[in-house]
Each structure stands twice: as C-alpha cells, then as structure tokens.
C-alpha cells in the first residue's frame, strides 16, 4: 500500500511571504524552510518574548538569526528555544544559537539524554521506504548535542513556557521524548515529525514538497508502535492547520480527514514492511513507553 495520503494544492495553508524566505501562516506564527527541514518562529512581529521552535541544520545559524531580526527587530533574542526533538536536522544549530542568545532550551525529559551530551540516537535504517534520503541516512549525524547548562524540562502540567494558550503533547516513536504543540483556540498543530506533510524518504519529494500526509520519516523512526499511538492522539484533536517539521503547512477539513485516515490505517500506510521494532535502542535508561498529556 502507498506510504502517504495525497492532498490537494487547495489544502495548502494561505501564507504571507515576508521577503526573506520566511512565510507566515498565522498572525503570530511563521516558518522558514532550511534545506530539508522547517524552523518555526512564534510571537508577534516586532515584539520581544518570541520563541524559536527547533533550530535546523548546523549550517542554519546565521539564516535563523537574520530571519529573527527581520521579524522581531535588530539584536532581538528569543525568550526560549523549544525543541520538538533533537535529531540532527532539528538541533543542528542549537548549541550555537543557545550560546549566542544565552537563552533556556526546553524539551521533554526523555529527550534530555540527547541534549546533554549523554546518549546518541540509534543507527538509521537505510532500507525502509526507499529513496535517496533513506539510503543516505547512515551518514546523518546522530551524536548528542550538549546544552545541559541551559536545558529546562517542559512543565508537567502540559503548559508551554512563553506560549500562552498552547499545550505540549508527548508524541513519542520517532524519538523517545518527541513532542508536538497544540492550540485549541484555532485548532493549530505544530506536529514536529510525529506526522509530516511531505515524503521525506525521496530527494525528489523533499525538493518539490508535494502536499501529502505521512507518518514520521521512516529511516529515523525506531518505534512504530509508539508512532502509531502518537498519530492517533493527534488525529483525535482534529486539527484545522498543521505545520510539521518537513513539508508545507496544510489546512482545512480534507487535511483533518486525511490525518484521521492515516491514524486508522497507520500500519498499512506508514509502517515499512521490514520495520525493526528495536525498542531498547530507542529508549534511554529509565524511559517508558506511555504517551502523556
């Protein structure tokens, strides 16, 4: 069976181009695609107290700073950096940006070993899903970053520091401490890589970003049981707008319906036939397999 659910161009969220490659999809939300991954800026333009969500690749530092200063003002600094997870394409510039701005870094406690220099992620699996991105995946960095001096754990009550009205949701599977962000008021979901809106295994799809609903990138997802639980959690929310770590923002009832279909048929659509269920290598010591919040 196909590993994706096709969307229409009409399902793409309306965007405002700010002129530097950053695109706004809500008054207080904008994103910048940096090579193969998205970073997200939360906060009203021209004001302090904003939040950077994920930090892109190791080459992304200067572009992120430039985009932030254009959006929020010269010499701006965020109130915090928030990590959906710590894979190389999401945490590549984290150490440099956290030091440059001298700000706290928030993440789930189960992601802490990958952010404090302790633990490397399990090896990628190049044989799931096909495509050049999958075949190259053993070359992707998987060593931990180290921001232990600035690291903070997300509050247990599900609130998100400096993002009033938002909740964080534990959506593991792609990584043990992966989180997504949810705002009930306008049914906006920042999904991270729990579900994504383009095919990440194929270099062609990464380039064209045809709108589709997918499970998490296959080559870096070691626990498909938890990934299925996470997709079901997100589908129950019935989001109207989704911005994921890979792909363009999508919006509307067809998107909601396709996410529900993905959750219902997750094993047929998202899980590779030869997926490895290597839970031990994906879960740090003391970790658990229960999604919460």
TrEMBL record:
Domain named Metallo-beta-lactamase: residues: 36-246
SMART domains attached to this UniProt entry: Lactamase_B
Pfam families linked to this entry: Lactamase_B
Region annotation Disordered: where it falls in the sequence: 271-293
Entries under CDD domains matching the protein: yflN-like_MBL-fold
Protein known as: Glyoxylase-like metal-dependent hydrolase (Beta-lactamase superfamily II)
Species this chain originates from: Pseudorhizobium tarimense
